[in-house]
Design goal:
This protein is an all-alpha fold. The protein is built from 2 helices and no strands.
């Protein structure tokens, strides 16, 4: 008994560019998603439009900068102060 493979339809001249159009559409969607994710994570702008990673990094730098080394009683690191 011989097994026959099904006849695969050849691409018609009208469908040759379809794979290119689909590829470009997927590429545009992927770039748009990557841009939105990048902007949300590391976007730089005013305080309201900064990305999550940039906001946290700024917060860490401010805490380290406001830590007074000779003040053991300092409890708030939002400003550089040493209570008496």
């Amino acid at each position: 008994m011989l097994l026959r493979t099904p006849n695969l339809k050849k691409a018609t001249p009208n469908n040759k560019g379809q794979i290119l159009v689909e590829y470009l559409l997927l590429l545009v969607i992927a770039i748009a998603c990557a841009t939105l994710i990048t902007k949300g994570l590391v976007g730089r702008g005013d305080d309201a439009n900064r990305g999550i990673i940039v906001k946290q990094w700024d917060k860490i730098i401010r805490i380290l900068g406001n830590d007074v080394p000779d003040c053991a009683k300092q409890k708030d690191f939002k400003t550089a102060n040493c209570p008496p």
